[in-house]
Amino acid sequence: MNIIGIRLAMLRLPLRTPFRTALRTVEQLEDIVVQVQVDSGHWGYGEAPPTAAITGETHASLMEAINGYIAPAIMGRSIDDIDSLSRMVQHAMARNSSAKAAVEMALYDLHAQMHGVPLHELLGGSTTSLMTDLTISVGAIDKMVADTRDALARGFTALKIKLGRELELDVERVQAIHETAKGRASLRLDANQGWTARHTVDVLHALERAGIVPELIEQPVPAYDLDGMRYVIERVQTPVMADESVFGPEDVQRLLREKAADIVNIKLMKAGGIARALRIADIAADHGVPCMMGCMLESGISVAAAAHVAAARPDTIRLIDLDGPQLCAIDPVRGGVRFHGPHIDLSRSPGLGIDHVERLQWF
């Protein structure tokens, strides 16, 4: 099975509600979809969101990276040796982690199809069901409380609360959501690098005095500020999770060596694909540090790949934040993983199990 073609498409999906964080506001999902074809007639699927604020990538850069650099490096190669293909993708160019992830997940999809097994099984996993949280975007307290009620009604038992840059208002937001969700859902706070270390400690101490200890606080300070992450860890009860501070295996090794995280958030788009995501999980496991499997604004294509990776390392990847498809008003993916409220059921079909994707605009 040799690679004979790679093509790209745009996938645009409206969101249920605008996605707001301390870094950006997004009205709709607009992702680049990759199809890799082999001479047997099989297709593998991949996907990459343009997340300039985090990975530095745009629609134009994603397309140029794939068409101009990654595709030429793997065209005509056999799908049999996935490790070699993964290395070729990584060495095709520097950075551009989402572009690499999109192509690599399509290659893994094909490799698992070749073996006739679901991807998670090929990666050594047996879990076929996961439970994800749901994101509550930052905004007016009344709107965040209303979104919380809706999430609870849909059966979610873990909520990821996006916060802003105002200490007192952020405390009020969490208190209001806690009052609404108390006894029904855990709260995971995410400041998206919007705070200082001192700000973070002040917010968490205020919550702790009110009897609220969140399940975790995600990346409260800028990605480069490992001293700030450690400062927070040493002063609060709430576990601190690194997100933007960790792109690849090299980052997680330094982070854990400097004791700057209690939990690590793995995202295929930051890691550059499946192989490096698995390596991050294995390094974290060696240090006894749990991980979350997260996503950007992604559809069921790349979220399916992330879910299979999480299912392959369930002892380490204990937290799931794969709610991208749940934030969309439309699900265009036929086959693949299935979403039922917080439940994610993995396909037992070979590879990612994706049969068809609607609403694609081919380039």
Q: What's this entry about, in short?
A:
By secondary structure, the protein is α/β, with parallel strands linked by helices. The protein has helices at residues 59-74, 82-91, 97-115, 119-122, 141-153, 167-181, 197-209, 226-233, 249-257, 268-271, 274-286, 300-312, and strands at residues 3-20, 25-38, 43-48, 129-131, 134-136, 158-162, 186-190, 216-218, 240-242, 263-266, 291-294, 317-321, 333-335, 338-340, 343-345, 354-357, 360-362. It is 38% helix and 25% strand.
State the helicity in percent bands: 25-40%
Question: Number of helix segments?
Answer: 12
> What sort of overall outline do the alpha carbons produce when their principal axes are compared?
globular
Major beta sheet summary: 8 strands, parallel
Which radius of gyration do the C-alpha atoms yield? 20 Å
Count every beta strand, where a strand is a DSSP E run of 2 or more residues.
17
Q: Provide the succession of SSEs.
A: EEEHHHHEEHEHEHEHEHEHHEHEEEEEE
Query: How large is the share of residues in beta strands?
Result: 15-25%
> Which structural class do you get from the secondary structure elements?
alpha/beta
CATH homologous superfamily grouping of the largest domain = Enolase-like C-terminal domain
- In total, the number of domains comes to 2
Distance between the termini: 25 Å
The top level CATH class name of the largest domain: Alpha Beta
User: Per CATH, which architecture of the largest domain?
Assistant: Alpha-Beta Barrel
Summed over residues and divided by their number, the pLDDT gives a mean of 97
Task: Tell me the CATH topology of the largest domain.
Answer: TIM Barrel
Uncertain runs:
none
Q: What is the spatial order of strands in the main beta sheet?
A: 5-6-7-8-9-10-11-12
